Amino acid sequence: MAEPAPTVAELLAAVGRSPAAVAVHDRAAWVGLFSDGARVNDPVGSRPHVGRAAIEKFYDTFIAPNTITFHVTRDVVCGMSVVRDLELETRMSTGVVLTVPMHLRYDLVAEVHGVSLDRLYAHWELPGMIGQLARAGWRGAAASAKLGPQLLSNQGVPGATGFMRGLRTVGRPGRNAAIGFLVAVRRQDFAAVSARLARGATLELPAGTPLSVDDFANALRELRWNKMIVAGRTVTASVRAASWEGVALIEFTPRSHEISRVRMYVEQVGPFPK
Protein backbone atom coordinates (compact mmCIF):
# COMPACT_ATOMS: atom_id res chain seq x y z
CA MET A 1 0.00 0.00 0.00
CA ALA A 2 1.39 3.39 -1.01
CA GLU A 3 2.28 5.84 1.70
CA PRO A 4 -0.07 8.86 1.94
CA ALA A 5 1.22 12.06 0.41
CA PRO A 6 2.62 14.58 2.89
CA THR A 7 0.13 17.11 4.19
CA VAL A 8 0.49 20.85 3.70
CA ALA A 9 1.43 21.14 7.36
CA GLU A 10 4.20 18.55 6.93
CA LEU A 11 5.61 20.34 3.88
CA LEU A 12 5.61 23.69 5.68
CA ALA A 13 7.22 22.11 8.73
CA ALA A 14 10.02 20.68 6.59
CA VAL A 15 10.70 24.09 5.07
CA GLY A 16 10.50 25.78 8.46
CA ARG A 17 13.30 23.61 9.82
CA SER A 18 15.76 25.30 7.46
CA PRO A 19 15.71 28.83 8.97
CA ALA A 20 15.46 27.29 12.44
CA ALA A 21 18.74 25.43 11.92
CA VAL A 22 20.35 28.48 10.32
CA ALA A 23 19.38 30.67 13.28
CA VAL A 24 21.26 28.48 15.78
CA HIS A 25 24.12 27.62 13.39
CA ASP A 26 23.35 23.89 13.55
CA ARG A 27 25.31 22.64 10.57
CA ALA A 28 24.39 18.97 10.99
CA ALA A 29 20.68 19.75 11.30
CA TRP A 30 20.66 22.01 8.24
CA VAL A 31 22.60 19.66 6.00
CA GLY A 32 20.49 16.77 7.28
CA LEU A 33 17.35 18.37 5.87
CA PHE A 34 18.44 17.49 2.34
CA SER A 35 17.96 14.24 0.44
CA ASP A 36 20.90 12.29 -0.95
CA GLY A 37 21.82 13.93 -4.24
CA ALA A 38 20.01 17.16 -3.39
CA ARG A 39 20.86 20.37 -5.25
CA VAL A 40 21.21 23.88 -3.87
CA ASN A 41 20.97 26.62 -6.53
CA ASP A 42 21.92 29.78 -4.62
CA PRO A 43 21.69 32.17 -6.36
CA VAL A 44 19.89 30.78 -9.37
CA GLY A 45 22.26 31.14 -12.30
CA SER A 46 25.38 30.20 -10.32
CA ARG A 47 26.82 26.68 -10.36
CA PRO A 48 24.60 24.34 -8.28
CA HIS A 49 25.91 22.58 -5.18
CA VAL A 50 25.06 18.90 -5.65
CA GLY A 51 25.23 16.22 -2.96
CA ARG A 52 25.91 16.28 0.77
CA ALA A 53 29.62 17.17 0.60
CA ALA A 54 28.99 20.15 -1.68
CA ILE A 55 26.07 21.32 0.48
CA GLU A 56 28.30 21.14 3.57
CA LYS A 57 30.84 23.38 1.82
CA PHE A 58 28.01 25.76 0.87
CA TYR A 59 27.03 25.98 4.54
CA ASP A 60 30.63 26.61 5.61
CA THR A 61 31.03 29.41 3.06
CA PHE A 62 27.77 31.32 3.18
CA ILE A 63 25.93 30.42 6.39
CA ALA A 64 28.44 29.61 9.12
CA PRO A 65 30.24 33.02 9.19
CA ASN A 66 27.03 35.08 9.19
CA THR A 67 23.89 35.77 11.21
CA ILE A 68 20.92 35.25 8.91
CA THR A 69 17.29 36.21 9.56
CA PHE A 70 14.35 35.27 7.35
CA HIS A 71 11.62 37.94 7.05
CA VAL A 72 8.83 35.95 5.39
CA THR A 73 5.87 37.61 3.69
CA ARG A 74 4.11 34.41 2.67
CA ASP A 75 4.57 30.72 1.90
CA VAL A 76 2.79 29.13 -1.05
CA VAL A 77 2.33 25.35 -1.15
CA CYS A 78 1.84 23.99 -4.67
CA GLY A 79 2.05 20.23 -5.06
CA MET A 80 5.34 19.07 -3.51
CA SER A 81 6.86 22.55 -3.71
CA VAL A 82 6.84 25.42 -1.25
CA VAL A 83 7.67 28.88 -2.57
CA ARG A 84 8.63 31.44 0.04
CA ASP A 85 8.33 35.18 -0.58
CA LEU A 86 10.75 36.95 1.76
CA GLU A 87 13.61 39.29 2.48
CA LEU A 88 16.82 37.77 3.81
CA GLU A 89 18.78 39.83 6.32
CA THR A 90 22.44 38.85 6.62
CA ARG A 91 24.73 40.34 9.24
CA MET A 92 28.29 39.60 8.20
CA SER A 93 31.24 39.25 10.57
CA THR A 94 32.41 42.82 9.91
CA GLY A 95 29.05 44.21 11.03
CA VAL A 96 27.68 45.09 7.61
CA VAL A 97 24.01 44.15 7.19
CA LEU A 98 22.61 43.15 3.81
CA THR A 99 18.89 42.98 3.07
CA VAL A 100 18.15 40.98 -0.04
CA PRO A 101 14.67 40.55 -1.61
CA MET A 102 14.24 36.91 -2.49
CA HIS A 103 11.97 34.14 -3.69
CA LEU A 104 12.94 30.70 -2.37
CA ARG A 105 11.57 27.56 -4.00
CA TYR A 106 11.85 24.31 -2.11
CA ASP A 107 11.09 21.12 -4.06
CA LEU A 108 10.40 18.42 -1.50
CA VAL A 109 10.42 14.63 -1.53
CA ALA A 110 8.80 12.11 0.81
CA GLU A 111 11.31 9.63 2.23
CA VAL A 112 11.05 6.83 4.78
CA HIS A 113 12.10 9.10 7.65
CA GLY A 114 9.90 12.03 6.55
CA VAL A 115 9.96 14.95 4.14
CA SER A 116 13.35 16.08 2.80
CA LEU A 117 14.50 19.04 0.71
CA ASP A 118 15.44 17.77 -2.74
CA ARG A 119 16.00 21.02 -4.62
CA LEU A 120 16.50 24.55 -3.32
CA TYR A 121 16.32 27.46 -5.75
CA ALA A 122 17.19 30.88 -4.32
CA HIS A 123 16.10 33.67 -6.63
CA TRP A 124 17.96 36.85 -5.70
CA GLU A 125 20.10 39.40 -7.52
CA LEU A 126 23.84 38.97 -7.00
CA PRO A 127 24.68 42.33 -8.66
CA GLY A 128 22.39 44.07 -6.17
CA MET A 129 24.07 42.37 -3.21
CA ILE A 130 27.51 43.39 -4.48
CA GLY A 131 26.20 46.94 -4.84
CA GLN A 132 25.09 46.95 -1.20
CA LEU A 133 28.56 45.85 -0.13
CA ALA A 134 30.15 48.57 -2.23
CA ARG A 135 27.95 51.23 -0.58
CA ALA A 136 28.68 49.98 2.95
CA GLY A 137 32.02 51.72 3.32
CA TRP A 138 34.91 50.04 5.10
CA ARG A 139 32.67 47.35 6.62
CA GLY A 140 31.53 46.33 3.16
CA ALA A 141 35.08 46.37 1.83
CA ALA A 142 36.23 44.24 4.78
CA ALA A 143 33.37 41.79 4.22
CA SER A 144 34.27 41.48 0.53
CA ALA A 145 37.91 40.90 1.44
CA LYS A 146 36.91 38.04 3.74
CA LEU A 147 34.39 36.47 1.37
CA GLY A 148 36.93 35.96 -1.42
CA PRO A 149 39.29 33.75 0.63
CA GLN A 150 36.32 31.89 2.12
CA LEU A 151 35.07 31.10 -1.37
CA LEU A 152 38.48 29.88 -2.51
CA SER A 153 39.15 27.89 0.68
CA ASN A 154 35.80 26.09 0.75
CA GLN A 155 34.87 25.95 -2.94
CA GLY A 156 38.17 26.12 -4.79
CA VAL A 157 38.67 28.07 -8.01
CA PRO A 158 35.88 26.20 -9.88
CA GLY A 159 33.42 26.92 -7.05
CA ALA A 160 34.39 30.58 -6.84
CA THR A 161 34.04 31.09 -10.58
CA GLY A 162 30.81 29.05 -10.49
CA PHE A 163 29.38 31.40 -7.87
CA MET A 164 30.23 34.43 -9.97
CA ARG A 165 28.26 32.94 -12.85
CA GLY A 166 25.32 34.36 -10.93
CA LEU A 167 26.23 37.74 -12.38
CA ARG A 168 25.10 36.54 -15.82
CA THR A 169 21.35 37.10 -16.06
CA VAL A 170 18.71 38.02 -18.61
CA GLY A 171 19.10 41.54 -17.21
CA ARG A 172 16.89 44.49 -17.98
CA PRO A 173 15.74 43.07 -21.36
CA GLY A 174 14.49 39.95 -19.57
CA ARG A 175 12.75 42.02 -16.91
CA ASN A 176 11.08 44.12 -19.60
CA ALA A 177 10.04 41.00 -21.51
CA ALA A 178 8.51 39.54 -18.34
CA ILE A 179 6.62 42.76 -17.63
CA GLY A 180 5.40 42.88 -21.23
CA PHE A 181 4.18 39.30 -20.95
CA LEU A 182 2.30 39.95 -17.70
CA VAL A 183 0.76 43.14 -19.09
CA ALA A 184 -0.41 41.25 -22.18
CA VAL A 185 -1.92 38.53 -19.98
CA ARG A 186 -3.81 41.06 -17.87
CA ARG A 187 -5.08 42.85 -20.98
CA GLN A 188 -6.21 39.56 -22.52
CA ASP A 189 -4.07 40.32 -25.55
CA PHE A 190 -3.62 36.74 -26.72
CA ALA A 191 -1.56 37.69 -29.76
CA ALA A 192 0.91 39.68 -27.64
CA VAL A 193 1.15 36.82 -25.14
CA SER A 194 1.91 34.34 -27.91
CA ALA A 195 4.46 36.67 -29.53
CA ARG A 196 6.62 36.56 -26.39
CA LEU A 197 6.65 32.77 -26.17
CA ALA A 198 9.23 30.44 -27.68
CA ARG A 199 8.02 27.56 -29.79
CA GLY A 200 6.77 24.78 -27.49
CA ALA A 201 6.57 27.05 -24.44
CA THR A 202 4.38 25.87 -21.57
CA LEU A 203 2.08 27.94 -19.36
CA GLU A 204 1.16 26.33 -16.02
CA LEU A 205 -1.57 27.45 -13.61
CA PRO A 206 -1.06 26.25 -10.98
CA ALA A 207 2.51 24.98 -11.49
CA GLY A 208 2.37 21.51 -12.98
CA THR A 209 -0.97 22.09 -14.76
CA PRO A 210 -0.41 23.19 -18.38
CA LEU A 211 -3.02 25.44 -19.99
CA SER A 212 -3.56 26.88 -23.44
CA VAL A 213 -2.69 30.53 -23.98
CA ASP A 214 -6.38 31.46 -23.98
CA ASP A 215 -7.22 29.56 -20.78
CA PHE A 216 -4.09 30.85 -19.03
CA ALA A 217 -4.84 34.48 -19.88
CA ASN A 218 -8.56 34.16 -19.15
CA ALA A 219 -7.76 32.83 -15.67
CA LEU A 220 -5.55 35.84 -14.93
CA ARG A 221 -7.71 38.78 -15.91
CA GLU A 222 -7.23 40.38 -12.48
CA LEU A 223 -3.49 39.73 -12.28
CA ARG A 224 -1.29 42.17 -10.32
CA TRP A 225 2.40 41.89 -9.52
CA ASN A 226 5.30 43.48 -7.68
CA LYS A 227 8.77 42.56 -6.37
CA MET A 228 10.29 41.29 -9.58
CA ILE A 229 13.64 39.47 -9.30
CA VAL A 230 16.06 38.63 -12.14
CA ALA A 231 18.31 35.62 -11.49
CA GLY A 232 20.03 33.55 -14.13
CA ARG A 233 17.68 33.02 -17.04
CA THR A 234 14.59 33.48 -14.92
CA VAL A 235 12.41 36.29 -13.67
CA THR A 236 10.21 35.79 -10.62
CA ALA A 237 7.45 38.07 -9.41
CA SER A 238 5.11 38.21 -6.45
CA VAL A 239 1.63 37.98 -7.98
CA ARG A 240 -1.93 38.27 -6.76
CA ALA A 241 -5.49 38.21 -8.00
CA ALA A 242 -8.84 38.62 -6.27
CA SER A 243 -8.74 35.35 -4.31
CA TRP A 244 -5.09 34.26 -4.15
CA GLU A 245 -1.47 35.32 -3.92
CA GLY A 246 1.63 33.53 -5.13
CA VAL A 247 4.82 33.71 -7.15
CA ALA A 248 5.27 33.59 -10.93
CA LEU A 249 8.38 31.88 -12.30
CA ILE A 250 9.17 32.99 -15.87
CA GLU A 251 11.97 31.10 -17.64
CA PHE A 252 13.76 32.17 -20.82
CA THR A 253 15.38 30.17 -23.58
CA PRO A 254 19.19 29.82 -23.39
CA ARG A 255 20.09 32.48 -25.96
CA SER A 256 17.12 34.80 -26.38
CA HIS A 257 14.53 36.75 -24.46
CA GLU A 258 11.74 34.45 -25.57
CA ILE A 259 9.86 32.80 -22.74
CA SER A 260 10.12 29.01 -22.59
CA ARG A 261 8.01 28.28 -19.50
CA VAL A 262 5.79 30.10 -17.03
CA ARG A 263 4.81 28.49 -13.75
CA MET A 264 2.36 30.18 -11.40
CA TYR A 265 2.95 28.91 -7.88
CA VAL A 266 -0.40 29.62 -6.26
CA GLU A 267 -2.67 27.95 -3.75
CA GLN A 268 -5.95 27.70 -5.63
CA VAL A 269 -8.90 29.20 -3.80
CA GLY A 270 -11.97 27.94 -5.62
CA PRO A 271 -11.95 27.28 -9.40
CA PHE A 272 -9.93 29.60 -11.61
CA PRO A 273 -12.18 31.56 -13.95
CA LYS A 274 -12.40 30.38 -17.54
TrEMBL record:
Transmembrane segments: none annotated. Residues 19-104 form the SnoaL-like domain. It comes from the Bacteria. Coiled coil: none annotated. This is Transport factor 2 (NTF2) domain-containing protein. It comes from Rhodococcus jostii.
